[in-house]
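Quick one: structure for this chain?
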Amino acid sequence: MTDVRLAGPARAIDGDRIVKQLVVGLLLVAGACFVLLGSPAVPQRFLYDSRKIANIAGGYQGYDSDKSFRTVGSVYRELGLADQPVLAGLLGYLLFVVALVVALHGRLAHAGPLELALVVGAIVLATVYVGTYSKDVFVLPVALVALWRRDGWWPEVALVAAMAVYAHEFRDYWYLVIGGYVGFRLVMARRFSVGRMIGAGLVALVVLAIVFQNYLGVELDFYRTKVNDARLGDVDTRTLIEPFVDVDGPVGSFLNSAIVLASFAVPLPLVLKLSPYYLVVAAFLVVLWGRLARAVQLSGATAGTDPRWARLLALVLGLTVVQSVFEPDYGSYVRHLTPLLPVVLAVILWRPRPAADDPAAGR
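Got it. Here's what it folds into:
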């Protein structure tokens, strides 16, 4: 009788896990089919970067002033994908699938309805943003290194090295992401909490403001303002991030960046658009950051923070703080966040291990 009673719940748990795996598997296959069909019905404004990269890859347009576009286009050309947009998109999407499967492995059983909704949203965003010629595809190797499940110093060194390579070859501002990552890792060396996460994010903005003012000679939101000044009135720029407070100087730039950071988690500017599409995106972001905050709260309730989990969270927070300084619009924010969504989901679905548990627990 004991064996029968134990077998019943075990089968129920296995069945629940299998259903979730089937749902996610079908969604991934549907995403691949969508990419193979050439991503039909995707609005043209989502494909501007893709067209630029295709032009560079085909040798039709230089964009010599933009290092990231030039490098990405050259990589696609060297891979023989200059005139293969569907194949290039499929390879990018499959790389995202690999990262997502690694992130969900052993954790999907912890997913409830909200987490499954986030997985659906992540797959949809991946088909749009990495299922085509994309600069963001090249963040996925960084995500895979972060998802390495080993403990110790080597995974930390490997992740910093991967970020440094990406910064050198594609986007210089990722050097700042490395600094943010190291800072958050130091803060998370002991027990973490939502309050400390928010406080550390604000301190990081203060540090960046000092660096920008003293070493670059510009205010914290200078680069966003410079980009957006040239885009005012553009009909396809619908989610432009404009100054929230009309205060000049370092204080005003810090306040605006801090409000932008908060609006990434609670995107009221998108809600106020009163568009069904933007409302869905806003809901996705609210749930994403709400569940991440819950994961931080759960971790803070344990005897200590798992360093492997902290590695993932520090990467997400480091990038998000830097995004609050540079991102010109919310569309760019979501696009740049997309390749790290597997990492965010791993953070959310992680279950803290008690201090006495063996090192393999909590994976």
